[in-house]
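Why does residue order matter? Because the sequence determines the fold. Keep that principle in mind as you read this record.
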Amino acid sequence: MFTDTFTDFYEQFKNSLSDGTFAKLTFAKTIGNTELKNIYIRPIMDEDELKLELKFRFQQEELFEIHTIEKAFDRLLPFINNPFLSVILFTTEFDLTYKLNKKRVVNVSDQHPTFGNANEVLLEYLSSGKVIK
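Structure:
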């Protein structure tokens, strides 16, 4: 249901990785009192390749998964509206918020950046001359 709008948002995320401005990606604001509280996404090096670590923060524990940038989209999409109403992309140029209202209409808005520095793992990867696929 939210595939098209989240695809556009995810493209912005991938662009921030490619241009070296990515700081953080967070799934937040759940519907009601849910067991899953947040999902934090950050780049990591895995077998000399840039991948994404997804940290699922539950009330009692944290679980980690590693995915390619493309596969992470399919893993994250089902959490839109179930249980998360907002996803925030933090970059050094702007913060982009993907938000669902009570009628489940998507609104994407940007604000001034929260972070002044991009993710260190990402910058190290890009400085080695590698390109994000």
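DSSP finds three helices and seven strands in the chain.
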